[in-house]
Amino acid sequence: MKIFAHILLILFSLSCFLSASSFDKGNAERKVATFERYLFNIENNKVDEDAANSEIIKNKLEKDIVEAIVNYKQNKFENSYRLLFAHLKEKPTVLKYYKYLVKNAGVLDKYSQIKDFVSQREDVTEFLYLSGLIDYYETNYRSAEDKFTEVLQTKPNSVETLIYLSNTQRRLGNYEKADKTLQSAEKLINKADPKTAEILVLKGSLFFLSDKYEEAKKEYNKGLQAAKESGNNIEIVKANLNLGMINDLNGNIPKSRELFERAYNLAKKIDQKELAALVLSEWAVSFTYSNEPVEARKRYEESYSIFQAFNNRERMALTAVNIASLYLNIGNYRGALDYYKTAFERSGENVRAKMLALRGLGDVYTNLANYTKALQYYDDAKDLSKKIKDVSTEAEINIGMGILFYNLVKPQKALELILENFDKINENELPYLKAELDQKVGIIYI
Questions:
Q1: Residue pLDDT, tens place only, 285-332
Q2: Triad 109, 341, 177: Cα angle to 5°
Q3: In whole angstroms, what is the distance from residue 129 CA to residue 132 CA?
């Protein structure tokens, strides 16, 4: 317990959290900033059973929030939810309260209880924010975007809301809009704020999703440095994870494995189970590149089971896509079909997840020689890839469509599709994809 207080008093200034993580102002905000820093330490360190007995805690609400976060990290969801829901009528201004209330409700399938409570009170800013969070975690991103935007009309300096809004816009496939929102958030905080690291890593991911890997790498490295300076272990994990993904795509497998292992060990150390599951799912992808399906499947399935325990719909969808691709590669088309359908159903309004599931369904039906159905899925997937300007995934979709037309004895159409994005794929950044394109062109010419 003394360790938390020591870190709090020596390493960080209270100003880092002003306006960032609550709706309070003035002296009240400064008191919240102290408590927010304490919550930050709980999230970013190993669970301390005695955390709720700190002298920093001034009232029952704060004590229950701390205990609820500790319980959540220990998978004690029922007790965590009970502690938080009891305070809902108080309209707490600490925004992490609402995050953990919603995440617990998602696990326990209790969104309806919260919705019933706030349905007559949505004019209250805190409850509008809460309603937006429910939409976000239910993957109803359009509604979430509207609600977060409305919250910002009355609370324009809420960095937490801006970050959720940006993440919502990203999932809707509007990367430019998401970046502008992050820039607005960044202007509201100083460089010592732990949220600086979060914003830099998120900016890196927007570059990554836009196939701008060098720019992504720069942002991830800046985010990693900021995270180390601020003690933000969660963002250290995410930065290392994302840098590992870039190394994978560049063909530097040994470096990627080193980064994945480092990220996984830290996530486990600080008791962030969902974060550990995220690392496992991307680590598994690395094993598919080196043709080690047993190692990949082991990590995918462990990751999926953790996301399932937390009812994390979005991550279940994306991990299901990866498991499906494993089944597809070994010719288990029924297993692949089931997982791709699960992925599509759980994608909600997440454009990228939906696109990947549709592409996978096209691949399955191509292998089953149901070309009409396959083409329909490919067309839908390609429309989404163009919407979010995902050139690499569009190239992968074109490979599938090229195989389809080659099987229909239409080699010229197949070649046109495979060459459509050929020159846009950088061999140094995406060597595996470039090699696959080269291979398919060679087969057609032969």
A1: 999 999 999 999 999 999 999 999 999 999 999 999 999 999 999 999
A2: 75
A3: 5
